[in-house]
Write a structure and sequence with these properties.
Helix 7 runs parallel beside helix 9 and helix 16 runs antiparallel to helix 17. The chain is globular, with a radius of gyration of 22 Å. Helix content is 35%, strand content 15%. It has 2 domains: 131 residues, 3-Layer(aba) Sandwich (Rossmann fold), CATH 3.40.50; 275 residues, tm_1862 like domain (pyruvate-formate lyase- activating enzyme). It has 17 helices and 14 strands. It is α/β, with parallel strands linked by helices. Bound molecules: cobalamin and iron/sulfur cluster (SF4). The site of cobalamin (B12) has 36 residues, from helix 1, strand 3, strand 4, helix 3 and helix 6.
């Protein structure tokens, strides 16, 4: 069979988008899982429009909630051309019935155990409607098909070493989507690291771990990083702030070439952190935690969310200065988005605060989909835009870049300067959210009818974090 895997994307800003910085791992991972007797292509809508006139027999769409409407429209268009169309990913996993209305088949959960079955059944004309992936150990996860990436990506080597996270933040689907915390054999990860068929030196040099929380299992992290040292790469990942209390791990991170760590800081407010189920974050400690990474020349990227129950317009706007003061090098600023499958979705649904007339297009991290506690939806959107504009004003962008030149190693500094300049450029070019279609109305088939019942979180507790 000929298979097209399409990673769906919709621009979130009125002008410009994160077109080709780092690719999603999902498409090239699914391609690697595809049995070799089938031919496979991976198309990234963020780089190129999907090929509707493809000669593929089967089209597989992967998408987040915010791109669901686009995915459903694409599915209809492919189906009208006689293709078998299947869907999977986080949105499908939590909105199976809705997705079934648009696809010939859906795969719920992780694909490793079920993707080959789905392809076999499609090939034999015996496609089932629903495939449920079980959560397998990561022992046989292959090297992604980097060779299938379009040329345009700036940092193409994305790698996954672990899956899952022991925390249970209220806005995050990971604890349910990827239960437990699993590690991939270091040998296999090193095979991804050793892959060097990229055109430019920086593409060969940089390894971006797309893990949920790479350093949870300290013994594994130490083994992984020790094996990484001789490769002399630059690498980045997402981790939790507790790594700052582990100087020997930080030293090893430095030695193995770490240039950037993303922390989900989310907020400075005690009430907001409580609402986020993120009480492990202590605002009074941020500065000291971040300084520990700076002392090793590592750039600190950090995510901040606006719209928790503890947030007011003033507290949101204040974050532009607070995050600078805390030492953050590159901020990522989103609006709280209650994705299906999260505790936030459940809670806001139970409290009747989800704006049900707003369809999935609004679930992209830059729009308001619920009734905030201390302001109106319009005020939250406005406060978030003001935060964005202030955080990426010339003043703060310049201050962050200049300050970071004092302590970041040069790869980290390059990344910091590049990302800050990009977002600042975007701010001046116009960073308003893309104008969305008229609200869909409660009766629209895409307007979600009721909050799904959250599956019980199957998680290891933070206590299981090995020291
Ligand atoms: C890496 C990552 C990113 C990266 C890369 C984004 C990308 N497009 O891949 C960055 C940092 C850019 C990012 C940004 C965002 N992200 Co993100 N991200 C992740 C993360 C941590 C890992 C994803 C990953 O690569 N996993 C490894 C691959 C191999 O597995 P996978 O994608 O889960 O796919 C598996 C299954 O889902 C299934 N599958 C997936 N698709 C399909 C399709 C078919 C046909 C089949 C059969 C199976 C299948 O098979 C795969 C193998 O088992 C996840 C958390 C998570 N654990 O999923 C969040 C996650 C996907 N992100 C999320 C969100 C919300 C965002 C943002 C909107 C955040 C924001 N406020 O801006 C943006 C969107 C930006 C964009 N351009 O798309 C949410 C999505 C929730 C939802 N329901 O939509 C997640 C789940 C985290 C969360 N908050 O819960 N993200
Ligand atoms: S720490 Fe990060 S990955 Fe873990 S549950 Fe919270 S937001 Fe999700």
């Amino acid at each position: 069979m000929r298979i097209d895997i399409v990673v769906v994307y919709v621009q979130r800003y009125q002008r410009g988008h994160e077109k080709n910085f780092v690719p999603p791992l999902t498409g090239i991972h699914l391609a690697a899982l595809t049995p070799p007797e089938h031919s496979v292509r991976v198309l990234h809508q963020q780089i190129e429009p999907p090929d509707l006139d493809t000669d593929a027999d089967l089209v597989a769409l992967s998408f987040f909630s915010g791109f669901a409407r686009e995915a459903y429209e694409l599915a209809e268009r492919y189906r009208s051309r006689g293709k078998i169309v299947v869907g999977g990913g986080p949105h499908v996993t939590f909105s199976k019935e809705e997705a079934l209305g648009h696809f010939d088949a859906v795969l719920v959960g992780e694909a490793e155990s079920a993707w080959a079955d789905l392809i076999r059944d499609a090939d034999q004309g015996n496609l089932q409607r629903v495939y449920v992936g079980t959560t397998l150990p990561l022992d046989s996860v292959p090297t992604p098909r980097y060779d299938l990436l379009p040329r345009g990506f700036f940092v193409p080597r994305v790698v996954q070493a672990t899956r899952g996270c022991p925390f249970t933040c209220s806005f995050c689907t990971v604890p349910v989507l990827n239960p437990g915390f699993r590690t991939r054999p270091v040998e296999r990860v090193m095979a991804d690291v050793a892959y060097d068929e990229f055109k430019h030196w920086w593409q060969r040099k940089i390894v971006w771990f797309w893990d949920d929380n790479l350093t949870i299992d300290r013994r594994y992290a130490r083994e992984l990083l020790s094996r990484l040292v001789p490769f002399r790469k630059w690498w980045l990942t997402q981790a939790s702030m507790d790594i700052s209390k582990d100087p020997s791990l930080l030293d090893l991170m430095k030695r193995s070439g770490c240039i950037g760590v993303f922390f989900g800081i989310e907020s400075f407010g005690v009430e907001s952190l409580k609402d986020a189920h993120k009480q492990q974050n202590k605002a009074e400690r941020y500065k000291e935690r971040i300084a520990a990474l700076h002392a090793r020349g590592i750039c600190v990227m950090a995510g901040f969310i606006s719209g928790f129950d503890g947030d007011s317009p003033a507290s949101i706007k204040a974050m532009a200065h607070e995050l600078y003061e805390a030492g953050v090098d590159v901020p990522f600023l989103s609006i709280l988005t209650p994705f299906p499958g999260t505790a936030a979705y459940q809670k806001l649904g139970d409290e009747g605060r989800l704006l049900r007339e707003r369809g999935w297009d609004y679930y992209n991290g830059y729009n308001v989909t619920f009734e905030p506690k201390q302001m109106s939806p319009a005020e939250l959107l406005k406060a978030h835009r003001e935060l964005w504009n202030e955080a990426f004003s010339l003043k703060y962008t310049f201050l962050r870049i200049v300050r970071s030149a004092r302590y970041l190693r040069w790869g980290a500094f390059l990344m910091c300067a590049l990302m800050n300049s990009f977002y600042c450029f975007k701010r001046f070019r116009g960073n308003e959210p893309r104008a969305l279609a008229e609200p869909m109305g409660v009766g629209h088939p895409l307007a979600h009818p009721a909050p799904p019942v959250c599956q019980p979180n199957v998680v290891t507790t933070p206590a299981a974090v090995r020291g």
